[in-house]
Design goal:
Layout (H helix, E strand, L loop, with lengths): L7 E7 L5 H7 L4 H8 E3 L13 E7 L2 E3 H13 E7 L1 H5 L11 H9 L11 E6 L9 E3 L6 H12 L15
Length: 174
């Protein structure tokens, strides 16, 4: 790939999930150097920036399990021209959504013996939701997590101006 005239600005965020999708991004290993020739990272684990400025591409993992997740998602969406839901949690709620058949208050009582009530704690939602329940997404990259190769293929397609296409073997759910 040749370097573009202007590097695209890319940001990442994580909501309710395990951070595995971010680990897959880091698992592209030495290809990170090639990626850094093409993009400038804004908010991401590589920069440790906590707030996102306007960017071309946003990658977001995790579902929505509390009010803070919803706030972060809405603010992130405002800053991203293109938003990609990365992984099962962002696309359908993933493993955190397994609590959807439980009563949240009862679940909290069984774990803490009382429902925590501190203004520092984000208000839990009654259900875990995928991010498309709150904002418009432009692309979805499935997997739990998507492999480093799937992320690489997806990103290089987007950066080259192609519609991302993941061939056989690049999507997995293990």
């Amino acid at each position: 790939m040749t370097a573009p005239a202007r590097k695209l600005k890319v940001a990442t965020a994580s909501l309710a999930g395990c951070f595995g999708c971010h680990m897959s991004l880091l698992d592209i290993d030495e290809r990170l150097f090639t990626l850094l020739e093409l993009v400038e990272f804004d908010r991401s684990p590589l920069t440790d920036l906590k707030h996102c400025s306007p960017c071309d591409l946003g990658l977001i993992e995790g579902g929505l399990c509390n009010a803070e997740n919803v706030h972060v998602l809405r603010e992130f969406r405002k800053q991203c021209k293109v938003l990609v839901a990365v992984g099962a949690c962002a696309i359908n709620g993933g493993l955190p959504a397994q609590r959807n058949h439980l009563d949240v208050r009862e679940c909290l009582r069984s774990v803490y013996s009382t429902v925590p009530n501190d203004p520092e704690l984000p208000l839990p939602l009654d259900q875990v939701h995928p991010i498309n329940a709150v904002v418009r997404i432009d692309y979805s990259l499935p997997g739990c997590p998507p492999s480093a190769d799937a992320l690489w293929q997806f990103l290089t397609d987007l950066l080259a101006g192609r519609t991302p296409h993941l061939g056989h073997g690049l999507i997995r759910y293990d």
